[in-house]
Amino acid sequence: MRTVGVEEELLLVDPETGEPKALSAAVLARAAQDEADEGLFEKELYGQMLEFATHPQTDMAELGAEIVRCRREAAEHAGGIGCAVAALATSPLPVSPSINMNRRYQWMAEQYGIATREQLVCGCHVHVSVESDEEAVAVVDRVRPWLPVLVALSANSPFWQGRDSGYESYRSRVWGRWPSAGPTELFGSPERYHRRVADMVATGVILDEAMVYFDARLSERYPTVELRVPDVCLHADTAQLIATLARGLVETAAREWRAGREPVDHSVSLLRLAAWQAARSGLASELLHPRTMRRMPAESVVRDLLDHVGDALVGTDDLDGADQAVTGLLERGNGARVQQELMERTGSLRDVVLECVRHTQGELQP
């Protein structure tokens, strides 16, 4: 059974005002004193962010429990220095990001200018194990049209710098400013994939292979395919669902490859439109269907995703749980909808942030 690991980026905020706080160094120093949390949390580009990574898991319930535990540990360490954590993909309140300066981040700030200074966004990256580079590239080629559906499900960033962005996942639009980010053309073989990456690094526009920000890529550190499109999810159960669907997509793609089925040859132009539509409307209206690239109600597209990966989920005994989770998410809405409803009810972005802190820590039921 394929293993799955999740990396989540969390926002550090003031527990009274909801404003982002550049205190990651202090949180990491406090966490380092706890042997149980050694190596759990990592520094990110900005001082207002904190990242953690789960262990590889085969059981989705155990993965979900670890995500909950990691969030609670992050909240405890943040609380120890007077701040809180929020699983928000962008800050609803205005913020001037503080870059954690080292040689790498300094290079990025100089190379990309304002695009670097405006990249305070929090994502969820899902690593799914693969058996070889051949299988990994076959998977990357075949999951491409389905990735915007994961954006819609995870969308959790409707506000930007104190204003309604008009998008359910504005994070994904900001992330797209990196020159190497976004969907890819078909590669067809590991040789072509690695040659493309090497050519990109050779341009000097990006620093190294780690800065190849494809929507789905081969991990440079692990024998995994990494799906990088989701927003960090407001609720841990949504993150578990995203990880479950990601494994289903990888397994389904690998089976199609082994059966000799060719990937759908949608152009990058169409994939970019599908990603934009998912970011714009999330689950609220319509998405571009991965097979036809024509508009359909979001619920129908999500159900078709579940059907697409159904055999793989049966094989891991995840289908019933995923179906229930999808039904619940469609009924209550994604994180963007929760934030929008909070804003409508309270009229205060501060209250939105503080309520989302409680959701993040599991104090409020999704």
Gross CATH architecture: 2-Layer Sandwich
The helix content is: 40-55%
CATH class designation: Alpha Beta
On the 0 to 100 scale, the average pLDDT is: 96
Number of strands: 11
User: What gross morphology would you assign?
Assistant: globular
Structural class: alpha+beta
What radius of gyration results from the CA coordinates? 19 Å
Number of separate helices: 15
Largest sheet features: 7 strands, antiparallel
**Terminal Cα span:** 29 Å
Instruction: Sketch the topology as an H/E string, one letter per element.
Output: EHEEHEHHEHHEEHHEEHHEEHHHHH
Q: Determine the CATH topology.
A: Creatine Kinase, Chain A, domain 2
In the predicted model, the low-confidence regions spanning at least 5 consecutive residues are: none
How many domains? The number is: 1
Strand content: 5-15%
Function: ATP-dependent carboxylate-amine ligase which exhibits weak glutamate--cysteine ligase activity.
Family: Belongs to the glutamate--cysteine ligase type 2 family. YbdK subfamily.
Catalytic activity: L-cysteine + L-glutamate + ATP = gamma-L-glutamyl-L-cysteine + ADP + phosphate + H(+)
Protein name: Putative glutamate--cysteine ligase 2
